[in-house]
Amino acid sequence: DEQLVLQCQITLNGNGERLLMARDITRLHRLEQIRRDFVANVSHELRTPLTVLTGYLEIYQDIAEVLPSRLECSLPQMQKQTARMQNLVDDLLLLSRLESNDRSGEDARRLNLASMLETIRRDAEALSDSGQRITLEIHSTLDLMGCEQELQSAISNLAFNAVRYSGSGSQIVLRWRALGDGACVEVQDDGEGIAAIHIPRLTERFYRVDKGRSTATGGTGLGLAIVKHVLLRHEARLEIDSQLGQGATFRCVFPHQLVVASSS
Ligand code: ADP
């Protein structure tokens, strides 16, 4: 009893008549479902062996002084790589959950952006090791209706990218401001910037401007894909303003129905 999935388009012809075009995308839809399930299952299956490996590495760390020196030397590298794999699996699982529209029990609620952005600012500062200045600009007292965990993780991804892709001594600003028809969070940096041809593709999974460099920065290649899906679920959108060598501004634009007067 498989359902038929149709993609429909209504157009007007020269005589002002409406034309309805329907395309059967059942097979495409099914393949997409198989891809999503596959990624979700693989990520889930990788979790257990990773937990076991991490556990053993912790034991080795505790007894490092009695280990043969060759093994001891390789410990930091093994820990680094398992942590990287763990981040990747966590991000893949998060992305699968976001795609499958599973809200995992978290409902939208009233959020105070000033305190959320301050937490993110502090986390970003902890990640930064090169004297970057990260400041907060709160231009609006409005609250936002949204899922706290999801938005926190999306905006953190933007802030961490700003730290990772702008050099020492750079300035990073986290900003909350009202727009004519809604409000936005902006994450602005004065780092290396992005050439125009890359911008439309940045939210694709594993798309990277500089493959070699990005893996060294510790990202998973899924950050902006996660941001895009979180915003989609909030009926919000991501705007990216950047030019090579001119820094970058990532803007999360929230529609007016999500922006409410502050309760305090
Ligand atoms: P990751 O950072 O793990 O590679 P993301 O999806 O978060 O994955 O970002 C995709 C790519 O977009 C990065 O590899 C980088 O090339 C580019 N990028 C993201 N944020 C910035 C930024 N603030 N400045 C310059 N380039 C950026």
Automatic annotation (TrEMBL):
Top-level taxon: Bacteria
Residue span(s) of domain Histidine kinase: 41-258
Compartments, record wording: Cell membrane
Example of a GO MF term: kinase activity
Keyword vocabulary terms for this entry: ATP-binding, Cell membrane, Kinase, Membrane, Nucleotide-binding, Phosphate transport, Phosphoprotein, Transferase, Transmembrane, Transmembrane helix, Transport, Two-component regulatory system
Catalytic activity entry: ATP + protein L-histidine = ADP + protein N-phospho-L-histidine
UniProt EC number: 2.7.13.3
Function: Member of the two-component regulatory system PhoR/PhoB involved in the phosphate regulon genes expression. PhoR may function as a membrane-associated protein kinase that phosphorylates PhoB in response to environmental signals.
Name listed for the protein in its UniProt record: Phosphate regulon sensor protein PhoR
Gene: phoR
Whole-protein residues included: 170 to 433 of 433
